[in-house]
Protein 1
Amino acid sequence: MWAGVDIGGTKTAVVFAADPPAVLSRAEFATLPEQGPERVVERIIQTIRAGGPAPRAIGVSCGGPLDSAAGVIQAPPNLPTWVDVPIKAIVEKEFGVPCRLENDANAGAVAEHRFGAGRGTRNMVFLTMGTGLGAGIIVDGRLYRGTSDAAGEIGHVRLTRAGPVGYYKAGSVEGWASGGGMEQLATEAAAAGNTSLAERLRRNGKVTARDVAEAARSGDAVAKKLIRGAGRRLGEALAILVDILNPERIVIGGLAMRMGEDLLAPARAVMRREALAASVAACAVVPAELGEQIGDLAALCVAMGEM
């Protein structure tokens, strides 16, 4: 049996599988990054222990930056209190089995390449597009890590001199085209009124990307505009990726799975306008096929040594 741990900016999941992609059991709990890593790490250990006999190996998928070789989480933007957490050493000491750590975008890329929308491709890019935004890159059928294990940090690229903050940078791709960035823009729009999002702001003190998606489905014009705007900024990032990497497929998780063509149609339109025509013609942009299961299978791929 394998165990996978998917650590996100808002939630953490622990899954067990004997023959992925089939999952035997799953547990989920809030990450609460402002409280630091100790509580979450203890919950992870308790959950794995409650799963029965020690698994063959444990895989941890988490946003970067991190040191996958040393197994250390190094203060990702959406987990700012997780500073140099030696998750590999902690877990291996508890269970006496191998623990592997991987960037969530890399892990998601491998999962979609093996089980999902990237099957059969030689060159593909996977975008997380969750609370943050990162990319996992497959070149000639293999994961591309870069010189310092930091390839694919498209979220850090600046699109505008000012704008919502993502990856510690105003106007970045992550600021404009991630769940965290959309939350900033939606909360600001809700405060101005003239949208059903205003009630969500009064009730919860903020407006999430999920709130925006639900409001848009109900016909809220402001929510639809926010999604189109995020889509256009996403398209600018896609054009950069297409021009530099010339992939045959770009697979997008997170918001793309929930917002669909409302987000992807404007993104493709901008990509077609901005990128080289021949490269655009060779590249399909699609939502992740694994759906809400992608984080689970990504962590299991890490456990299985698929990286």
Protein 2
Amino acid sequence: MGETNTKTESDFLLEIEDLHMYFGKVRALQGINLKIHKGEIHSVIGPNGAGKTVMMNCINGLYSPQKGTITYEGRKINRLRPYQRAALGMARTFQKVEVFGGLTVLDNIRLGRHLHYKSGILSGSIYKGKTSKEEIEHRGFIEEQIIDLLEIQHIRHKPVGMLPYGLQKRVELARALALEPKLLILDEPLAGLNLEEVEDMARFILDINEEERWKVTCLLVEHDMGVVMDLSDHVFVLNFGNLIIDGTPAEVQNHPEVIKAYLGEEDLYATRR
């Protein structure tokens, strides 16, 4: 697109070039090329089985693609493990909520903060001096920044497994934010939420992207087209492992290939009669 061509290399946080991922004879990704602009919300859409989650798993290191390169902040990261990518500022939420049900909300969030702890094993085991001071500082950040932002003050001491699904989604997002990410990958954050919860989650995503304290680049996989078109600066459309269009929401929503991917040839023909 014309907008993409005006960007310099320093404007891109993440670049994917000629990405291929196969599972036996199934070609989940076939030569994907895309660029994620810093400070924007990018969405990936497509029918079930299009390759969206597979691409997210390649980006954060759960899968190793057979071909292609993934470049993050100018550095090729194909050989980095998930925890190494997290250390570079890449956080992730999942399609199915991944939380520790027996731990409290606060403890779940603290687990996402572990990469920022500087105390060693010995000082951590006795919890004195620098370790105690550091723990107070990190807890202050969690309480004042993350818990307030996501409006979960009232549940911070409750076991996560006892919470409704919508609140568990917030806790998972809070844990990802505890990393203070540069890139936040959100895999269907609205799935299973009611209308009020969808509106809240959409507002949180906008705040995370726009507020001066955060300014996080977001990569969103979502089926709710209304939310995608409202939130996104840029939209990628996948179908059968191929990138069929890369553009603005306005360019994408009326594109015939997108309509065809969602409706099929016969329904597309019927809509034009």
